[in-house]
Specification:
The chain is mainly beta and 446 residues long. 8% of the residues lie in helices and 40% in strands. The protein has helices at residues 2-17, 20-24, 130-135, 178-182, 427-431; strands at residues 25-37, 46-51, 60-63, 67-74, 83-85, 109-115, 120-125, 140-145, 154-163, 190-193, 196-197, 200-203, 208-215, 224-225, 231-236, 239-246, 257-263, 272-277, 284-291, 323-331, 337-341, 352-355, 360-366, 372-376, 382-386, 389-390, 399-402, 407-412, 418-424, 435-441. The site of copper (II) ion (CU) has 6 residues, from loops.
């Protein structure tokens, strides 16, 4: 014990004099407040709510193993919090008011201490009055870099957002409307990437690019179409896939992330690739990638890491579901239309009580014709079945989209004790009741 204490002291001393300290910990301040953002089609700036006056909020970048301390200061006129979507953290740091912490009131602050356990693509957003707080701009990317950096030519993050803008240049100020609730939430009329409308990215022929796509929209589901770009999926929802596969489209629901490995061919100088959304029948451009008319660069050669299949289907073959959640709309709740899980509306909800460390199955049955991207905090899960048929996705997730009348069986092995949210990531649905918790009991030895 004494030697450990000495070693820690020694590390602290070394840490102060060398850049080692930059690797072991990082301190940041994030302030939520009223701000403004310039959209290209308005003469005036649009009033928004932003983290550190930036749309989106600052990208937090840390290294695997590092601890990040974040002082969250709330200068909004209402309570808020920050949730770190996908990141496995101690339950007390999960940022859910009323469940893992008190709401952070106007003028107050809260210190988050995040140990970055796994490299990957994550994001952060409030977990209170979500439709309005996300809809007015509060969100940011959180990237955990691996210990050993790979020689990507570029590592690009696209935090995709969807806004309901009015001709006057302001954000449509009514949230959780009857229309939103009867449909798939608040779908906007302007989609941005990192706050920019249809941005152009420039690349050199031969470059190898890691493109991290994050759907940070309030409600809109995306299906990016790459139009001729050769891409492979290397990670889903923050975790490396167990088998790298060619990108052929992906339903990127609110909350979801995919990381793509893109190689720009050497003979395409001057070409512009258009990236579009194809989830709905009305295709529209998201961004374009313009290849510079320069000599090709040498394409970096390496194999992106894959994860071992941590939750193989066999683990769940003898497991009976610990919970089945039927998803449907009911009359009632504060908006008149409630989105229910087992006919109950949050906070009066049907929780799943499960022990740590044991394989669990959970069933989601969508009894409605609307979309529900279901998300669980504090865990990854595998989709085992869709509509009664086995699924064999070579990756795990933290958010799975249920289409109209679909049912999905997921498998997970909870590793973190605590009370974790399980909810629809369409903000208006969640606020109209579609939230509950997965309560993971510690093992006796804990
Ligand atoms: Cu992004 Cu409760 O989630
Ligand atoms: Cu929903």
């Amino acid at each position: 014990m004494k030697t450990i204490a000495k070693m820690i002291l020694l590390l602290m001393i070394i840490g102060f004099s060398t850049p080692v300290s930059a690797v072991s910990s990082q301190k940041l301040k994030i302030t939520a407040k009223n701000s403004s953002h310039q959209f290209p089609f308005f003469d005036t700036q649009t009033p928004v709510w932003a983290y550190n006056d930036s749309i989106p909020g600052p990208t937090i970048r840390g290294k695997e193993g590092q601890t990040v301390e974040i002082e969250f200061i709330n200068k909004l006129d209402e309570s808020s919090s920050i949730h770190w979507h996908g990141l496995i953290v101690d339950n007390a740091m999960d940022g859910v008011p009323g469940v893992t912490q008190d709401p952070v009131k106007p003028g107050e602050s809260f210190n988050y201490r995040l140990k970055l356990r796994n490299a990957g693509t994550y994001w952060y957003h409030p977990h209170l009055n979500g439709s309005e707080q996300l809809g007015r701009g509060l969100k940011g990317a959180l990237i955990v870099e691996p210990k050993d950096k790979l020689p990507w030519s570029q590592d690009i993050v696209w935090l995709i957002d969807d806004w309901v803008l009015q001709k006057s240049g302001s954000i449509f100020p009514r949230f959780n409307t009857g229309h939103d609730l009867m449909h798939d939430g608040r779908w906007g009329n302007v989609v941005t990437i990192n706050g920019n409308y249809q941005p152009v990215y420039s690349v050199s022929p031969g470059e190898r690019i890691r493109l991290r796509l994050i759907n940070g929209a309030n409600a809109r589901v995306l299906m990016p179409i790459l139009n001729g770009i050769d891409a492979h999926v290397i990670a889903v929802d923050g975790k490396p896939v167990s088998q790298i596969f060619k990108y052929k489209g992906f339903d990127l629901a609110p909350g979801n992330r995919i990381d793509l490995d893109i190689i720009i061919p050497t003979e395409v100088q001057g070409h512009t690739y258009m990236v579009e959304d194809g989830f709905t029948r009305n295709r529209f451009p998201l961004a374009s990638i313009k290849v510079k008319e320069v000599q090709p660069v040498q394409t970096p050669v390496f194999d992106p890491p894959t994860a071992e299949d941590s939750l193989p289907a066999e683990v769940f073959s003898d497991v009976t579901p610990s919970k089945t959640w039927d998803l449907d709309a009911i009359r009632g709740g504060q908006y008149g239309i409630g989105w229910a899980m087992n006919r109950l509306l949050w906070p009066n909800s049907d929780t799943a009580e499960i022990p740590k460390g044991q394989p669990q199955k959970i069933v989601f049955n969508n009894n409605s014709s609307r979309l529900h991207p279901m998300h669980i905090h504090g865990t990854f899960f595998r989709v085992l079945e869709r509509n009664g048929k086995p699924e064999a996705e070579p990756f795990t997730r933290d958010t799975v989209l249920l289409g109209s009348r679909e049912s999905v069986v997921i498998g997970l092995v909870p590793t973190e004790p605590g009370i974790w949210m399980s909810h629809c990531h369409i903000q208006s649905h969640a606020e109209a009741g579609m939230m509950t918790t997965v309560n993971v009991a510690p093992q006796r030895s804990d």
